[in-house]
Design a protein that fits this description.
Distance between the termini: 43 Å
Structural class: alpha/beta
Radius of gyration: 22 Å
Low-confidence stretches: none
Shape: globular
Strand content: 5-15%
Number of helices: 13
Helix content: 40-55%
Strand order of the largest sheet: 3-4-5-6-7-8
Length: 306
Amino acid sequence: MAVSNTIMNWLDYTQLVYREGSVICVSPDKISDVKQIVDGGMSFIKYPDGDDIFQRKYGVDPWHQKDTRNILQTGAVSVKTIERNRILRVFFNYSSLKPVRIIDAGVVNYVSQESGVDVKFTEDVLQRTYPNGALGGYLSNYRSMAFKGRDEAVDFEKATANLFQDVFGYKTIHLGQTGAKSAPDVLVISDLEGYQAIIDNKAYSKYSISGDHHNRMVHNYIEGIGNYSKCSFPIGYFAYISGGFTEHIDSQILKEVKESGVHGSCITVSNLIAMIETHVKTPYSHKKLRDLFGVDRQILLSDINP
């Protein structure tokens, strides 16, 4: 069981597959990539039964480098090494549940307290090991939520709120936990540009906007925004986030745009992750984000990296 779970975790990390119950599926937008990998063939690793050799060559998890120590010159394990491992173990768990864009005082203090290691050494270890933050693990976990249906719907919504706040710099309010049909999953607010926006999560591999969902977005969320939002800013955009969409999604989005008079879009989790990775390197302004999420159709990679 442990081996199969490890394999699935690594497959999740590639962002090429998703799970629906006990079934493993290839993401529709990644089929060509998977075919290329399979057709290209792969050579078997040497000494597949040697755990130490495997870990030294390939590493122990997605966020650590392979072990390149010279074993002949390695002595007894020092106290600092033990403390470093405690720090990294706590941080590994923390960063899988919360997006860590930078190592700041809040992260250092939390890890120091949980690991029992002094703040100064904790800060040194984290800044040396993760100079650019650690979004990878969180994004991998986030992506898998988009294909789990109602099982992790609330977690998917909360994770979206965290990303729009901690990565994109919006104020966010998670409304989905109430279960009310009169409010969307997440409300985001930009004080910088003076607008608010509506985010609706759909944990499906192929989402289509039904008549009921259309009316809910147009009449409950957009027209009725004053019923759940105290913000007086105009609506900058609405957006759906899902594992994937049907081929008719563009016309469905445009129909909502024309009826509501508000620009909107939809985006797959894979493309949202690509947008986040681009943003980390070259940050989007809130004006640019409003333009991206207001294209009135599905957001494509060409929109993110024109």
